[in-house]
Amino acid sequence: MKNLQGIAASNGIAIAKAYTLEVPDLSFDTIKIEDTETEINRLHDALDVSKQELEKIKEHARVSVGDEHAEIFSAHLLVLSDPELISPMEDKIKNEQVNAEVALDEVAQMFIKMFEDMDNEYMRERAADIKDVTERVMAHLLGVSFPNPALIDEEVIVIAEDLTPSDTAQLNKQFVKGFTTNIGGRTSHSAIMARSLEIPAVVGTRTVTNDIKDGDLIIVDGIEGKVFINPENDLLAEYQDKQADFAKQKELWAKLKDEPTVSKDGVAVELAANIGTPADVEGVLDNGGEAVGLYRTEFLYMGSNDFPTEDEQFNAYKSVLEQMGDKAVVVRTLDIGGDKELSYLDLPEEMNPFLGVRAIRLCLERKDIFRTQLRALLRASTYGNLKIMFPMIATLEEFREAKALLLEEKDNLVGEGVEVADGIEVGIMVEIPSTAVAARQFAKEVDFFSIGTNDLIQYTMAADRMNENVSYLYQPYHPAILALVNNVIEAAHAEGKWTGMCGEMAGDPIAIPILLGLGLDEFSMSATSILPARTQIKELSKEEMASYKDELLSMSTADEVEAFIREKTGQ
Ligand SMILES: C=C(OP(=O)(O)O)C(=O)O
Ligand SMILES: [Mg+2]
Q: What is the pTM of this model?
């Protein structure tokens, strides 16, 4: 047995066989072929099996993540049937008497290079499609298995270097019981997706893909961040018990599903959820969410092979608003850049993409993209309780410009006779330290703040949130972070505005008592954290926590803060 320590990314315990998502070794030899007819048939057999697989994957994606995300697989299927690609392969086998692997590789490489060199985003994307499809066909020619996350049909734990949001979206919760990766931290997007799928996960193990092979029996302990490979019977039994305890604990939490969130001394706060897609709303309601505090709309743009149209966006936003009824839905406008890329948007290479043209900076540069989203949001606004939030705001000018565009699009729509809700609140994410410091100036103009601690901590501590080697610096209770959070809450309250928090800190059991004491109004977290948080807040006195405020804010280290909270709350 071997065990690994990683970062606990999504609660719960999973026990199942390993399924590795690594692309296999696809190297091959060049062979002289006498019977070229049979070799061409072999090529066609590999193409056919690949097509059948892709049809199934496409159907699965259509059901689980929607038509627009499934379209990428239609593009892959087109490649597999394209005579301009297949005929030169056949000719090569016939005329040069080479094996199908050589023909596939040489022709594909030629097209990939040709498309990559074109000065056109759409064509460069075709290069990526050909590359993807060629790997699949090559694996079939070589008789090696190719990972198909969407086709998993038995209970497994997925093992990968990292999972992209589109990989994660393909995972079927019924069969994928957990996952573990080499890289990533608690706030990397694979971890965030794992929590919205309610799949236990451990990320940042550094070596899991080397330590585990397909079929090994794995325990993923998403509570403690541990992974056990081929555990002995005693340990297996212990974890089966822990799994059962966790299920019982969940049943207890579920009893609070329809209760308000009120502290022991009778103060109400709002417990909201972070979502990435309309499909996540079901989990929010099942877990007793009182609002959506952060709808990360970029997931609508990722995994699709072109910009979602105004109508596609309208439908997604309307669906979330309708499902939530009169409960608030804070929709964050597009936050692309950093670790979130769009295959169809050609962003210039940057030395520091997290400090580059991301989020609102990109939207103000590409106003066409931004206006489409604003129109879709405004059109959807009459279907529920919409609030709009801009990400990565660093200056008041950015906020003013973004808001002016929103108002302009509102006027345009009204001029076109489209109904738009009145009095939509417009707020900002506070995730850049300068904004947290200057919160007083911002509070005069915005309707609300939502503190994005995932980025706020990364930028304040100068520690990449994706990098497990500096994850020790991800310190939510660091004196600097507590001072910034307090400053934002005080600034908002001084202007009669509310402050939420939608970074992962909002669902952290050590942070919750501190934030309650500092006066945070809304806590937005992964849906699965809501009921444990409600249970905890019911046992806390806000007045008592507020009485510790000065002492907490003057502490020197995060450890000191944590020890103090543990002592006071018995954790
Ligand atoms: C909620 C946040 O945004 P994201 O995690 O999407 O960057 C944050 O930065 O805290
Ligand atoms: Mg952020």
A: 0.78
